[in-house]
Specification:
This protein has 376 residues and is α/β, with parallel strands linked by helices. 46% of the residues lie in helices and 13% in strands. It folds into three domains: 63 residues, 5' to 3' exonuclease, C-terminal subdomain (DNA polymerase, domain 1); 186 residues, Rossmann fold, CATH 3.40.50.450; 79 residues, Arc Repressor Mutant, subunit A (Orthogonal Bundle), CATH 1.10.10.10. The chain has 18 helices and eleven strands. It has a nine-stranded mixed β-sheet, with helices on both faces. The longest helix is centred in the middle third of the chain and has 16 residues. The N and C termini lie far apart (47 Å).
């Protein structure tokens, strides 16, 4: 068995994700070596139960490797594993980088240097449509690859506008490439594959689930230098993408909306919490001068110095929302997940996520793995 085959098998095995793979590689060294270990040895690895170890050793009962390879070949899909040169450099830097990427089309050469995620609500307004189209077209005209999720609303408009402007686009799916959802966007997916790529971390026939869509959001953010949110409610999945972007050290942009429009509440809150207010693409171009590869190191130093001054300012501390202050009090006692913060504070998970995004933007907290911890 080759390392490439081992990666594909591990990606297809239920229960194996980036975290467990990291533990297995730490123990075994190389992917192929994992399948040369006994159940007893594998069960000593942190996070690997005896039942999961048996699945790994007896993988042929659960994974049809040749069927998967044949299916990918018939569909014109390239499978890229972590160790391969084609794997996007920027995506490889996130702590939970996908084990494999299934790619239909071609990843643009600038995907790790000049790319922008554009996300937002499915229930888009006329104003949101106009802004999504304008900003996606401007991104394409400026030589940026537009990355989104092929969903209704902002995603579809951003993809189509980038293509109409003659630019490249990349769509990240929440299911396998043989299970494209929504079905109405299959023609759009074909067009994207001709001028960019449609990608997924999931096996070819994996059907999307309510958990797989948030998982794909980390890839949308991880592929890009910045994430732009256009119209998002307070419980929008786009705020999850923004949270992933912050966790990964990327920049978040947000388009302001009408105060009485519920679909604008998420963006307006992001802006209050220090996301970069975006009215035209010039606002993004100015910030990209400071992004990684564009001289951002000095910018980060300035931000960190400003953050230290902020910590020492009691007036700024008192200006935080009640929710943010409660979160900081809890995190002072130790790291905690969103669910734990919600349980201890009595605040809904949606409000916790929104407040955490603001605290990340202010460099008050940082997310590592599934837990947040307070920066001191």
């Amino acid at each position: 068995m080759t390392n490439r085959e081992a990666y594909i098998i591990l990606n297809m095995l239920p229960g194996i994700g980036p975290a467990r793979l990291a533990a297995l590689l730490s123990f075994c060294g190389e992917p192929a070596e994992i399948f040369r270990c006994s159940v007893r040895d594998l069960a000593t690895v942190q996070g690997i139960s005896e039942a999961l170890a048996e699945k790994i050793v007896n993988w042929e009962r659960f994974v049809r490797l040749q069927h998967e390879l044949d299916l990918a070949e018939r569909g014109g899909v390239q499978i890229i594993t972590r160790d391969e040169e084609e794997y996007p450099e920027l995506l490889s830097t996130i702590h939970d980088a996908p084990i494999c990427l299934y790619v239909r089309g071609r990843l643009p050469d600038n995907i790790s240097s000049r790319s922008l995620a554009i996300v937002g609500t499915r229930n888009i307004t006329t104003y949101g449509q106009r802004m999504a189209r304008h900003l996606a077209e401007s991104a394409a005209f400026s030589g940026f690859t537009v990355v989104s999720g092929l969903a209704y609303g902002v995603d579809a408009i951003a993809h189509q506008a980038a293509l109409d402007a003659g630019g490249d686009s990349v769509s990240v799916l929440g299911g396998g490439l043989a299970r494209i959802q929504p079905q109405e966007h299959v023609p759009l997916a074909r067009a994207i594959a001709e001028h960019g790529a449609v990608i997924s971390e999931f096996p070819m026939e994996f059907s999307p689930t309510r958990h797989s869509f948030p998982m794909r959001n980390r890839i949308i953010a991880g592929l890009c230098r910045g994430t732009l949110v256009i119209e998002a409610g307070l419980n929008s999945g786009s705020l999850i993408t923004a949270s992933f972007a912050l966790e990964q050290g990327r920049t978040v942009f947000a388009v302001p909306g009408q105060a009485d429009n519920p679909q604008a509440a998420g963006c307006n809150r992001l802006i209050r919490q220090n996301a970069i207010l975006t009215e035209t693409f010039d606002d993004i171009l100015e910030e990209f001068d400071f992004l990684p590869g564009f001289g951002r190191a000095e910018h980060l130093i300035r931000e960190e110095n400003a953050a230290e001054d902020f910590f020492a300012n009691p007036e700024e501390e008192s200006s935080l929302s009640t929710e943010s202050q409660k979160i900081l009090e809890i995190l002072q006692k130790g790291d905690a997940s969103v669910d734990e913060l919600s349980e201890q504070s009595g605040i809904s998970a949606g409000e916790i996520i929104s407040a955490l995004i603001g605290l990340e933007l202010l460099h008050r907290v940082r997310k590592i793995g599934s837990n947040y911890h307070r920066l001191r």
